[in-house]
Amino acid sequence: MSSTELPDVLAATVAPKPGAVGVVEGERMDSVTLPGMTLSVRTRPAADTGLPPALYVHGLGGSSQNWSALMPLLQDVMDGEALDLPGFGDSPPPDDGDYSVTGHARAVIRFLEARGRGPVHLVGNSLGGAVTTRVAAVRPDLVRTLTLVSPALPELRVQRTAVPTGLLALPGVAALFTRLTKEWTPEMRVRGVMELCYGDPAKVSPDAFAAAVREMERRLARPYFWDAMARSARGIVNAYTLGGQHGLWRQAERVLAPTLLVYGGRDQLVSYRMAHKAAAAFRDSRLLTLTEAGHVAMMEFPDAVAAGIRELVADAGELRDPRAVRKGGGVSDDRRDPGTSGTRS
């Protein structure tokens, strides 16, 4: 579908505006207007026409830029788009102020319906993993396959290192943290985030660190940044306490799409021990464990994650060229790297 054929609720492709999130070569940014919200969308066009669509959904405090390392590795097998969830990246807050997991899932569903690209290969990280689990459970017609990288699913024993993030959900904590850290430079904040989210922050290149600092400066300049963070953190906590058919684990059991679960052995936010529980919950699942990865494996080990997705897509019968599954190595090849291992369940 060309841009001229899109419904009226969709805005045209726009050039990156001053202060916008970074756009790497081969990407473009779209602005999509939907009822009650406007979403910024990062597009990595497929290498060929007619390839199936994919949608990537970032985690708490992230943006579509979190997928820039992974998307080009898969552009020969899928046509990728990555959302900035409402209140993050270049997307303004939603009109109704709803930052719950259900509210974010509603944004994803509205986008897919308006874009007319479903069903898609759906990929989510952290908060985005919880959001995409809910989407796959309630709208199976929109999902071809599901890939979850360190999904934020309820844990009975939360890791101590994850507690400060959870505390953001408490009223007044975000404002207090802002006051206590007002002297922190963007560089200091980025180092803190990387120490929390990466398995080995020392492996981040100087260029990548500088880009992250620029991104942090942009985020801090937005008046709604901390409010979006606090309300989304509260949304995760509320989702953790929700029981019955709306509970995330119950919804994981309802997912019909073939599912790839990616867990990092050095993840300080989502416990590595939850990997096998997740593999048991999702009925058609496989597990990729990356022992040296932290919370953002798609940024630290994009080749390994891409290889896992290729095999998922191939086994689901969604790969146009079967030879493409081995491009860049498959999950079984990851054993050559002592920091990764591939297992299925």
Automatic annotation (TrEMBL):
Keywords: Hydrolase
Domain AB hydrolase-1 span(s) in chain numbering: 55-301
SUPFAM superfamilies noted in UniProt: alpha/beta-Hydrolases
Record keyword Signal present: no
TM segment ranges: none
Region (Disordered): 323-345
InterPro entries: AB_hydrolase_1 (IPR000073), AB_hydrolase_fold (IPR029058)
Keyword check for Hydrolase: yes
GO MF annotations in UniProt: hydrolase activity
Annotated Pfam families: Abhydrolase_1 (PF00561)
PANTHER family on file: ALPHA/BETA-HYDROLASES SUPERFAMILY PROTEIN, LIPASE-RELATED
Protein name: Alpha/beta hydrolase
Gene source species: Streptomyces spectabilis
